[in-house]
Amino acid sequence: MVGNGATDWDFDVSPSFPETVYNFNLISKSQLDTYQENYCVVYFNDFRPMNGSDIDLCTKTWNEITGMTADLNWYDLYRPVYPGGPLGKMLQSDSDERYGVSEVSGERYKRGYTFSEYTPWLKNHPAARSKAVFGSNVTDYLNHPEVREALHIPESV
Fold first, then answer.
1. By percentage, how much of the chain surpasses pLDDT 70?
2. What is the SS3 assignment for 91?
3. Which of 2, 70, 104, 107 has its CA 20 to 30 A from that of 19?
4. Are 142 and 101 contacting, i.e. CB atoms less than 8 angstroms apart?
5. Under 8 Å between Cβ of 111 and 99
6. What is the 3-state secondary structure (H, E, C) of 97-135?
7. For residues 135 and 117, which has the higher predicted lDDT (pLDDT)?
8. Whole-Å CA distances, 95 to 44, 79, 111, 154
């Protein structure tokens, strides 16, 4: 399995996005050329200010690119945007939907994880108070009998 592929904010996510979507034929060559010829760089969550020789043109081009790709799933350009966010339907940790029933054992399993369950050491992060559940589609997938068999997951797990 692959975790978050974004490991270097100088290159990953926003800085690499224009070239990536160009290679998927989602933006024009002229948009990519304008972006690159003006040395435009946008950083993820604005952790650094936008760079470029013409900031106004960089901003305009970035807005065009992100406007044309706004309905895409940045995590997987081959898949649609899922309702409720990039990882699927957004459950709440205190809802009955939080638990699924395994088709293998018939037992209930906890679907997904909350921010505080996934990163318990980040107690002071604002998201730690959220009851939103992420990744429920992954736990549902891993509880399908065919998947469990293919991955050699015993019934006892």
1. 87
2. strand
3. 2
4. no
5. yes
6. HHEEECCCCCCEEECCEEHHHHCCCCCCCHHHHCCEEEC
7. 117
8. 32, 27, 11, 28
Confidence at residue 1, expressed as pLDDT on a 0 to 100 scale: 47
Q: At residue 74, does pLDDT exceed 90?
A: no
What is residue 133's predicted lDDT score, i.e. its pLDDT? 81
d(CA 117, CA 42): 31
Q: Are 92 and 132 in contact (CB under 8 A)?
A: yes
Closest CA to 126 of 113, 115, 112: 115
Contacts of 100 (CB under 8 A, 6+ apart): 108, 109, 111, 136, 139, 140, 143
Six token digits for residue 88 = 């699927």
What's the pTM value of the predicted model, to 2 decimals?
0.54
Q: Are 143 and 102 in contact (CB under 8 A)?
A: yes
